[in-house]
Design goal:
The complex is a heterodimer of chains A (379) and B (160).
Chain A lengths: L3 E8 L11 H16 L8 E5 L2 H4 L18 E5 L3 H13 L5 E9 L5 H6 L14 H16 L3 H14 L14 H5 L3 E3 L2 E2 L8 E10 H7 L4 E10 L13 H14 L4 H4 L2 E3 L5 H10 L8 H7 L24 H14 L13 E8 L5 E8 L1
Parallel strand pairs in A: 2-3, 2-4, 9-10
Antiparallel strand pairs in A: 1-7, 1-8, 4-7, 5-6, 8-11, 10-11
Helix pairs in contact in A: 3-13, 6-11, 6-12, 11-12
Chain B lengths: L23 H14 L2 E5 L6 E2 L5 E2 L4 E2 L2 E5 L2 E10 L16 E8 L6 E5 L12 E6 L10 E6 L7
Antiparallel strand pairs in B: 1-2, 1-5, 3-4, 6-7, 6-9, 7-8, 9-10
Classes of the chains: A alpha/beta (379), B mainly beta (160).
Amino acid sequence: MERVAIIGVGQTKYERNKKGETFADLVFEVVTKALDDAGIAIEDIDNVVTVSNDFWDGRTISSMAVTDACGSYGKSVSTVEGDGTFGALYGLMRLLSGSFRSTLVVSHCKGSEGSNHFITNAIFNPIYERIIGLDSISSSALQARRYTEKYGITEEQCALVSVKNHKNALNNPFAQIAMDISAEDVMNSRMLSEPIKLFDSSPISDGACAIILADERMAKRVATSPVWVKGIGHSADAYNLGDRDLAEPAALIRAAQKAYNMAGIKEPYKEIDVAEIYDAFTYQELLWSEGLGFCERGKGGKLIESGETTMGGKLPINPSGGVLSAHPVLVAGLARIAEITIQLREEGNGRQVDGAKTGLAHGINGACGQAHCVWVLEN
Amino acid sequence: MSKQKYPLLTISSEIEQPYNYSLGRYGGRLLKELKHNKKIVGIKCPKCGHVYVPPRQVCGKCFVKMDEFAEISNKGNLESFTVVYFSFLDPETGQKRPVPYGYGRIKLDGADSGFLHFLEESDLKKLKIGMRVEAVFDENRTGNFKDIKYFKITKERNPS
């Protein structure tokens, strides 16, 4: 693969009820930040990918409502409806086509303007699962139950993910929910859909994130610390929840293997220094850790117990606080890429993993992680 | 311009969109069988033999067209479940949905895929993975997936 680098990133602070800004305002904020970060002007961007969803925005062809804010006037702009990691994947492909030098990828979501229940209920087939009222929380609860029972993952092991990530969030100025809590606090929090409790769940968030990708020539010309894309992989599983064994992250295993093959990684747990993964619920960090090959199948609980995924461990996972600490849907995967970029530039301040050379960012699309996108980055 | 501070405002509105979703020939057959015969039908892949329920045209794994319908039992094993404790305004009734209520993922006898529906039981202590459950049909069936009211726990023992 031709060498492509991330040369700039920008994030809003993630919050609930950002009433001071429209979603276009959020886009303008992060695009401006990413351009400043890259040390370039909007004129230096020749390709733009926007990431949004019409249900969340309450507007048809919502991607076209941010053309002013993302500076895409007169430029080649196209759109992705899905997680930001997939928007970035598409942006990367556009660059690799050789037609462009630089690509701006920007994603926005205001979760607090709509209803999480109704929007995520609309993921499902209207004739079957939608009509019985399943949504992101209750469908994930079915996955959590299946996974934890099949492999003997305990409630406390899931709670430890919440403890770790919410504590990490204290060091991330962009995080929404940052707190020092105990596993008991998590287990005693309000039950939403058994076994998922309030502190096992990510919050409703508003925010935006932008990244700028550049080809090697441009990256070397403008960037002082480019972060290089070493490997990428993506894969999808069946749409119907009934067609999948929800305890088995088959699509993630395939996506990770592709990314590792491209990056030349044989032992991910040893070779990756820091990972940001899509923990919409606590059990997901454990299940996705298994799919990413950080531990054996069914050993996600043991991995969190070992302490090696906390700051200072062998492989810190979600130093930013992860998706549990801020969950702007569609933005969250792009934020994982932005956070790994910050880590590999050693600009993480309080959340910095010392000497991080190789990092992994992960995003999901669809109910219960139907599709996965894995990025391996290096400084 | 004055230096007056303006409050941050929101405007509320709702979008109601009418749709007429086609059931297709496969979904239509399932709902007709539910309504008239209290039977669940699935479909078998001619290549891998996997039996799917609800029935649909394509086997995703083999990418072949399926046309062999199969009658599926109303009974099966509970593969996963949850009990929901948060409520929301149910658009079908206009009322807040009463909590708690249960969902199950059920492996019906004769099917290979899972089937998602309500559970009668919402007491966590009484639910266990692997237990036998059976579909209970509504008296007044309209050709809707909710012609199955819910799955109830049966006294049968799990044969597997």
